[in-house]
Amino acid sequence: MTKAELPERIETERLLLRVRTVADAEDIFAYASLPEVAYPAGFPPVQTLEDEIYYLEHLLPERNQKDNIPAGYGIVAKGTDKVIGSVDFNHRHEDDVLEIGYTSNVILWLLQSFLEGKEVISLVSCLAQFYVFSSLAAAECLLLSAVSYDCYLAICCPLHYPALMSTWFCHCLAAGAWFSGFFSSAFTMALAAPLSWQQGD
Question: Whole-prediction pTM value?
Answer without folding.
Answer: 0.51
